[in-house]
Amino acid sequence: MSPFIARPEHGVVWITGASSGMGRALALKLAGEGYKVAVTARSHDKLLALQAEASELPGSIVVLDGDVTQAEDMEHTVAAIEYQHGAVALAVLNAGIYLPARGEDLNHEVFDRSFAVNLHGVVNCLVPAVRHMRARGYGQIAIVSSVAGYAGLPGCAAYGATKAALINMAESLNFELDRMGIHIQLVTPGYVEAPLTAKNKFAMPGILSANEAADAIAAGLKSPAFDICFPKSLVYRAKLLKLLPYSLYFRVVRYFLGSGAKRRSVDTRATPHPAE
Predict the structure, then answer these.
(1) Where does the record locate the signal sequence feature (predicted)?
(2) Where does the chain show beta strands of DSSP type E?
(3) Is residue 159 flagged as an active site residue?
């Protein structure tokens, strides 16, 4: 049986983390294709501006404020969408943050905040979304991870760990959700122009605009593929690097980061991290 692929007539698209970056761009892209899109974030004013921008599009955008770190909030959000606007046919769980975590300055706050948003925030949305979809017998879910989840990178001890967990989670859930008629997909972007990446002081290979990323995601959502990854060249290099033995992997990464053999001489301003 072919996997379920949401179309406008099936119900609502729900996007978290939609106030900026590729979440915002994806909301406009799908509204332009005729979907009704429910957007969630903590920034009410930014969501209202997004809604206004979409006012002339074939579809529509509805605003539901919410904090993905609060499980009760997300239960209420999904219930409100279902009651007021229609079935959640597609959920794009995109909310995420990047906080550097380096060996020189390890602290609990960075890990706690990263896991609260990037991992637990996804779970808080996933649980009610799956429950409603399972009751109907169909649905589609896209979990946004990152190529930083494929292997360890300097500065990404917290961010990369959360994204690696999402990759494993999506792979594991695919076995059961498929039997329920729920099509789960994994989105693994590289560098995308956003407030997070705007602060980077280093060259970001293959960086895409938010609109380019949204186009890639929208195309992937219409396919039966499990993995929606882009840009392909960066993704394939990252996957190949992971196949190397650790002795080679660490040397290659250090070489490309320009740190060479001077392991103690780390420029903290030049730590690459793919981020949404």
Answers:
(1) none
(2) 12-16, 36-40, 60-63, 88-93, 139-144, 182-189, 227-230
(3) yes
DSSP reduced 3-state for 12: strand
- pLDDT classification of 197: cutoffs 50, 70, 90: low
Tell me the domains of the chain and their CATH numbers.
8-270 (3.40.50.720)
Those residues with Cβ within 8 angstroms of residue 192's Cβ, 6 or more apart along the chain or in another chain: 21, 22, 207, 208, 209, 210, 213, 274, 275, 276
Catalytic residue among 159, 191, 236, 249: 159
Q: CB count, 10 Å around CB of 112?
A: 13
Please give the pLDDT value at position 200: 60
DSSP state of 243: T
**Edge-to-edge strand list for the sheet holding 60-63:** 60-63, 36-40, 12-16, 88-93, 139-144, 182-189, 227-230
Percent of the chain surpassing pLDDT 90 = 78
- Averaged pLDDT for residues 215-238: 95
Say how many CA atoms lie within 13 Å of 65 toward its Cβ: 6
Per-residue confidence (pLDDT) for residue 274, from 0 to 100: 42
- β-pairing, 88-93 vs 60-63, is unpaired
- Is residue 97 pLDDT above 90, yes or no? yes
Closest Cα to residue 124, out of 185, 53, 75? Answer: 75
Burial 64-97 (b: 16+ CB within 10 A, else e): bebbbbebebbeebbeebbeebebbbbbbbbbbb
Residue 62 corresponds to which tokens in the numbers above?
């509805």
pTM reported for the whole predicted model: 0.90
pLDDT for residue 9? 97
Q: Are 229 and 276 in contact (CB under 8 A)?
A: no
